[in-house]
Design goal:
The complex is a heterodimer of chains A (220) and B (212). In chain A, 30% of the residues lie in helices and 16% in strands. With 220 residues, chain A is of the alpha+beta class. A 5-stranded antiparallel β-sheet of chain A has the order 4-3-2-1-5. Helix content of chain B is 43%, strand content 11%. In chain B, the strands form 2 sheets. Chain B has a two-stranded parallel sheet. In chain B, strands 2-3 form a two-stranded parallel sheet. Classes of the chains: A alpha+beta (220), B alpha/beta (212). Chains A and B meet through α1, α3, α4, α6 and β2 of A and α1, α2, α7, α8 and α9 of B.
């Protein structure tokens, strides 16, 4: 969706301000939010990363832009837990269980944490269809404005670029976020000239490369 | 998204007495998830410890230093960065599929995630606040030289700037150029010159003088 998360090319946010010797977490609660995210996903909750991103992006733009990173994570956690009846809003108010579901399945234990975070994963799936594009092909990204989750940013829509890498068939976020299954599609790295994206005044030395799924692309 | 981590910077100082509204909500959520059997608080402690002490940019620095000193490893990184990095023991969450981007004479790579905060966790740990913030995510793709200037980096005007927007589950690690004056250094010593930002592409590896 054309939400506040789609920031590429916007202006007016001011300078980038790096922090010296920045800690991984700026408050205890931030670490707990990250840890709960990992632990609940390892307990087999009925949602995936694309659904989480979709919930975050659905925040009203003013909220999204004024919340801190881990506040946005906390929002997506409580929203998905409530939506699926695992922790309902009344329970958050009361501070104890009031009838939302309890969990009887697997739970992540401390001894399993290292294996859970370092286990190699893969988003590549076998598909029957061959890749439509090859390295060096010229492609045009589509002008699409879906109301659901997509990974084609606005700044890279309706632009001509060149296939630089063929990554394999990857889980397709637009489908996976909507609960329509993984529906793996071929995914490519596509390189665009800065001037194609931003016009004649752009830095002539700039290229921007994005990982884009086949349904976003047509031959140019 | 806000670049600040406002109103909660100091809950370490007030633990248990004066928790912010958000810290209280997090505490309530943790207690509910524990009561219902979804999380084990000891596992949460272990997860925090992993990302505070075990998985961070020293991992990536070791990959870069090995690439600088071992041409066969550098070739492997070019062909299959996921496998080459896993060979160092770094794999897993936030880094399922890796690509190494080599800087060289006249070529500078820089990584961003304009849509969220995708970042190669196994080699760099959790991303810094600035990487996740609106100023960086908005400008890295349209004004990378302006962003580099804010990091104190000025590149020659004819250096090609290649920006990589992490829109899928591919994760990018920049291999900065090996600094001059490091002939004969071993990988362990070289790793001390490889900063986190040099592996994101917002900085260069340290010179031997700067590292002193």
């Amino acid at each position: 969706m054309n939400g506040a998360q789609d920031l590429g090319g916007m202006m007016g946010f001011g300078p980038v301000v790096p922090e010296k010797n920045e800690p991984p977490f700026h408050a205890t609660w931030e670490g707990r939010v990250l840890a709960m995210e990992v632990a609940t996903r390892n307990a087999g909750v009925p949602w995936n990363l694309d659904m989480i991103r979709s919930v975050r992006e659905s925040l009203p733009p003013l909220d999204y832009l004024s919340m801190s990173y881990y506040e946005i994570w906390l929002h997506s956690q409580t929203e998905l837990l409530a939506r699926h009846g695992l922790v309902i809003a009344d329970e958050m108010k009361a501070g104890h269980a009031l009838g939302g579901q309890k969990h009887a399945g697997h739970v992540l234990h401390a001894d399993d944490v290292w294996a859970a975070v370092t286990r190699p994963g893969s988003y590549i799936r076998d598909v029957a269809e061959p890749a439509r594009f090859a390295v060096g092909d010229r492609v045009r990204s589509l002008n699409i404005n879906p109301t659901g989750h997509t990974r084609l940013p606005r700044y890279a829509r309706a632009k001509v670029g060149t296939i630089g890498r063929v990554h394999g068939a990857h889980v397709y976020p637009d489908s996976n976020a909507a609960g329509r299954g993984e529906d793996a599609r071929w995914c490519y790295n596509v390189t665009f000239a800065g001037r194609e994206l931003w016009g004649a005044d752009a830095d002539p030395t700039l290229t921007v490369s994005l990982d884009l799924w086949e349904p976003y692309l047509e031959p140019a | 998204m806000s670049g600040h981590h406002h109103h909660d910077d100091h809950d370490h100082d007030h633990e248990g007495s004066e928790l912010s509204e958000v810290a209280l909500r997090v505490r309530t959520l943790e207690s509910l998830l524990t009561e219902k059997g979804y999380v084990d608080p000891a596992a949460l402690d272990a997860l925090v410890e992993v990302y505070e002490t075990k998985i961070g940019p020293r991992n990536g620095a070791r990959v870069v230093a090995r690439a600088w000193t071992d041409p066969a490893y550098r070739d492997w990184l070019r062909r299959d960065a996921t496998a080459a990095i896993a060979d160092m023991g770094y794999s897993g969450m936030g880094g399922a599929h890796m690509v190494a981007l080599e800087n060289g004479p006249g070529v500078h790579n820089m990584v961003v995630c304009t849509l969220c905060s995708c970042y190669p966790w196994p080699v760099l740990g959790l991303p810094p606040v600035w990487y996740k913030s609106a100023p960086y995510r908005s400008r890295a793709v349209i004004d990378p030289r302006g962003v580099l200037a804010e990091f104190g980096v000025t590149l020659p005007p004819d250096t090609a700037i290649r920006v990589w927007d992490s829109t899928a589950e591919m994760r990018y690690l920049v291999i900065p150029e090996r600094p001059e004056g490091t002939e004969g250094w071993d990988a362990e010593r070289l790793a001390g010159l490889v900063t986190r930002d040099s592996m994101i592409g917002t900085s260069l590896a340290l010179s031997p003088d700067a590292a002193r």
